[in-house]
Amino acid sequence: MKPYFFHIIANEIAGAYHGKTNTKLVVQYLTQQQIQFTLNKTHYPGHAVKIAQALIIPKQDQYQHLVLVIGGDGTLHQVIKGLRQNTQSPLIPVGYIPSGSGNDFSRSLNLSADPIKNLQQIQQAKAPQNLDIGVFTQTNGHTSIFVNNIGIGIDARTVFLTNHSKIKKVLNHLKLGTFSYLANLLRAYRQQKSFSVTVKTKDQKQTFKNIFLVTFGNEPYFGGGVPILPHANVYSRSIELVLVEKLPFHQLAPLFYRVFKDGTHLKDKHVHYFKGRQFQLTTNQLEYGQIDGEELGHHAFDFKVTLTQYPFWLK
Ligand SMILES: Nc1ncnc2c1ncn2[C@@H]1O[C@H](COP(=O)(O)OP(=O)(O)OP(=O)(O)O)[C@@H](O)[C@H]1O
């Protein structure tokens, strides 16, 4: 087995500076172990895409090259996106040290929260595994990937409100980021009007009215641990889709409880559930969108979701 060469892409502000602590620990460990690495820190939103696009890695040399992502779901998303657009290097396998506030991707794979344990597992792995990722293509040509999910409606509105709330920084500093998400979820519920969605799969086209949540998922969780798609997993070679109708609070609360209790929310008559490899979805009005927790803007959506794989070097 060739010795490792880690190309670290680190978002130090992820998880209210958990990224910084983990970066320090990883650098110390790799130095002690005399493992080769480069350290690229992100300096602004979206920087991880640019770093990943520009990484140059030799096709054949004495090392096993890996990109090591230190950050949250958003950073992982950006790195995979950038690496897929990198025309100068072959597809480089990705290792991941979860350091965000939500960490839904690592939760679904049961990765250790301890960065050193995680690194040791990466070192023990002998080969990459191809995991599913979603491909999102808008009719205007804009394309991206998702490692976790795409959301339209209330959860994307919550992401928007949380990112733009004045007290977010203070709450993050106090490690109360989840509190700020929950507070904004209630605000989003009050604001979110229902909308119509048309879904086209391989065999059918259906329109659903009165929807307030749309989630395409590659793994079970959104919003930092809510198992909205309990059967989704990154080895299934399929993407799942759930549409939830807007309900009065006294009906929504028990439905939400079932999400955590046993996943039977998927059988509710106000919930529409699909599984497949290819979807087309349109909304009839302007809505907020999010992709792996990153904002997709506020507009009418018309896009395709398909499936591909990316090599990960995990455990
Ligand atoms: N130096 C920086 N200054 C400001 N923003 C940054 C910087 N580096 C990265 N970012 C942005 O930080 C955002 C959040 O990163 P990330 O999603 O990894 O962490 P998180 O939100 O704490 O975790 P999670 O998504 O798991 O909840 C990303 O949108 C990224 O573009």
From TrEMBL:
<keyword id="KW-0067">ATP-binding</keyword>
<keyword id="KW-0808">Transferase</keyword>
<dbReference type="Pfam" id="PF00781">
    <property type="entry name" value="DAGK_cat"/>
</dbReference>
<protein>
    <submittedName>
        <fullName>Diacylglycerol/lipid kinase family protein</fullName>
        <ecNumber>2.7.1.-</ecNumber>
    </submittedName>
</protein>
<dbReference type="InterPro" id="IPR045540">
    <property type="entry name" value="YegS/DAGK_C"/>
</dbReference>
<dbReference type="InterPro" id="IPR001206">
    <property type="entry name" value="Diacylglycerol_kinase_cat_dom"/>
</dbReference>
<dbReference type="InterPro" id="IPR016064">
    <property type="entry name" value="NAD/diacylglycerol_kinase_sf"/>
</dbReference>
<keyword id="KW-0443">Lipid metabolism</keyword>
<comment type="similarity">
    <text>Belongs to the diacylglycerol/lipid kinase family.</text>
</comment>
<dbReference type="InterPro" id="IPR017438">
    <property type="entry name" value="ATP-NAD_kinase_N"/>
</dbReference>
<keyword id="KW-0594">Phospholipid biosynthesis</keyword>
<dbReference type="InterPro" id="IPR005218">
    <property type="entry name" value="Diacylglycerol/lipid_kinase"/>
</dbReference>
<keyword id="KW-0547">Nucleotide-binding</keyword>
<keyword id="KW-0444">Lipid biosynthesis</keyword>
<dbReference type="InterPro" id="IPR050187">
    <property type="entry name" value="Lipid_Phosphate_FormReg"/>
</dbReference>
<dbReference type="GO" id="GO:0016301">
    <property type="term" value="F:kinase activity"/>
</dbReference>
<keyword id="KW-0418">Kinase</keyword>
<feature type="domain" description="DAGKc">
    <location>
        <begin position="1"/>
        <end position="140"/>
    </location>
</feature>
<dbReference type="Pfam" id="PF19279">
    <property type="entry name" value="YegS_C"/>
</dbReference>
<keyword id="KW-1208">Phospholipid metabolism</keyword>
